[in-house]
Write a structure and sequence with these properties.
53 residues, mainly alpha
Length: 53
Amino acid sequence: MLPILTAIAGAVAGALYVRRKNGTAFDMAQYAAVWAIIFGLLGLLALILLTRV
């Protein structure tokens, strides 16, 4: 559940970041996808660490 939530949060953060920079819709989609992957991986790492401790 944690990786999904962090991936969604990353997608929203990436889209908002580009929106503040006045990017196009394609820029927003690309940043949302990249940030979702990064945040999802960080969430997965956090989930692994939490279950091992």
